[in-house]
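Hi support team,

I submitted a single chain yesterday and got back a structure, but I'm not sure I'm reading the token output correctly. Could someone confirm the output below corresponds to the sequence I sent? I've pasted both exactly as they appear in my results page.

Thanks,
R.
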Amino acid sequence: PKIGRGFNILTLSKSSRNSVSAGNFDTYGSPSASTEMVNFIAGIPNGDIVLVGIMDSAAVPTPQLVSALSSVGAKQAASIAFRSSYGLIGVKGGSALSESVSAPGKGPVTL
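Hi R., thanks for writing in. Yes, this is the structure output for that exact sequence:
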């Protein structure tokens, strides 16, 4: 899968734990990336495991994107700021198994 600036997502099947889909959403550099990411998350089947991380930078998430991330268990997505570090292991339609956000300049997160 392509990994790049912005949000990177990998989904795993709830039954096989194999990779199902992946996406990169450069919300910093592309005005349409937030909507594309919201649509990507909407298409993930309930119960699938969702891994999310930010590389380099992502724009502050829109309310729609915060809502989409909450559908995969995120509780801290509204705290993401420009140049924040963020990671999530969540379940679509469920809760987060692990989630962490750090302020800009405070280093990477550990899940």
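A quick pointer for reading it: Strands lie at 6-12, 19-25, 49-55, 85-91, 96-102. Let us know if anything else looks off.

Best,
Support desk
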